[in-house]
Amino acid sequence: MSGVMTGLGDSTYGKRKLQIKKEDLYMLTALWMEQSPWAMTTTDSDKERIVGAVFVQPNDRVLSVDCSRENDGGIVHGAIRALIKYPDQVEGCYVYLSRQPCAHCVKMLVQAAVKKVFYLPLKPEKDEQEENRSVDALFKVSPVSREVYVPNITKGDLDELASANKKNLYGKRKLEKDESVALKVEWEEWKDNDIVAKIGWDEYSDTEIKNQVDEDMKLFFKWYVQGILETGDKEEMAWEKVEDNSSAGDKEEVETPDEDEDEFDREVANHLSRLAQMLSNRTDDPNTGVGCVITIDKEIVAIGWNGYPSKALYGNHPRGSKEDKAKKKYPHIIYALENALLFRNRRELDGCVVYHTIVPSDEGISMLYQVGAKVLVLPSFLQEDELKKEKPLFYNCLPEKKLDVYRHIKG
């Protein structure tokens, strides 16, 4: 992939960009966080399941993206991690959970006065009869509302995803059958196993609603497989540290550091780079979707995607026609990195790691210097004359070692 934006002057620039709905994106993110390398590993999945959690403040700022984790031998659930980290910011939040939370999480969510809790109709965090009764009772007597989340992925969303996937940032791999159908199998088993009684979802007993929900879940799982699980050219993606701009275009000349001597966490890079790619599908830029994830101390502190200013209406901003080569468009586009930095959940970012789906602009590189970013993780790119001309700050940061830059090596 070239480090310079491609697709400029596309004849389709005038068409409205079909965006995946942000609520679906939050829920896909929560589900993907179940697969995080940071997620707990010592649990018996029949008794207690990992839960991914996304907290969104009333102003649409994503406050927290997390999952259930081990902590000094114990376990802190995904929802509770956010409540403990941001006790003065969770009030009024909309909470997206990959599964129905346990009673312990519910009472904390109620006490913290979140606004609403959404969860997918999958097997709950704790699948026990008494536990489900407690969850139901806690919600019924509290002002916190809850909803079983039925995704609204459309066939148009899948078509848009297929178009975006043609850029093939991290390659594509063929999944093992059990890997690609695992969630679908779980859903099929669960929905026919008294789901109405276990999570209090009376509406699912209506035949027409049931048929629509089944179709919606089918499309949701299909997007999850194509938009996340199939991305990455292999299960263990390969990464290399780019030492200088003279060798960045030839992977055979770049020495891959020994993992024992290198602090770069390749497993985390596999996971969060694919999350950044998934986030890029929320863009309303007609040509190029870009996603960004920022972490520090094994915590996601910001996510972002590129697009026009918030609440912008179609027709009020240039869209990059063939004639203007997109030069009129870019002053109107908020870059993914800019959105991530604007809406991050902590002020200090010194030493942070940034996962970005294209080489950042010079403005972006300057901002990374300002906040003290340490590592920049990118897809494959070539150090061409065009890159040197259009993004000189990035080109020059390599020999000056102002940032440690890693890139994916396509298999």
Automatic annotation (TrEMBL):
Enzyme class: hydrolase
Keyword set, alphabetical order: Hydrolase, Nucleotide biosynthesis
Keyword Hydrolase among record annotations: yes
Pfam families: dCMP_cyt_deam_1 (PF00383)
Transmembrane stretches, start-end: none
Alphabetized PROSITE patterns for the sequence: CYT_DCMP_DEAMINASES_2
Keyword Metal-binding appears in the UniProt entry: no
CC annotations in GO: cytoplasm
Domain CMP/dCMP-type deaminase: residue ranges: 27-135, 267-395
GO molecular function: dCMP deaminase activity
Disordered: annotated segments: 239-264
Compositional bias of kind Acidic residues: 252-264
EC number: 3.5.4.12
This protein's name: dCMP deaminase
Organism: Actinia tenebrosa (Australian red waratah sea anemone)
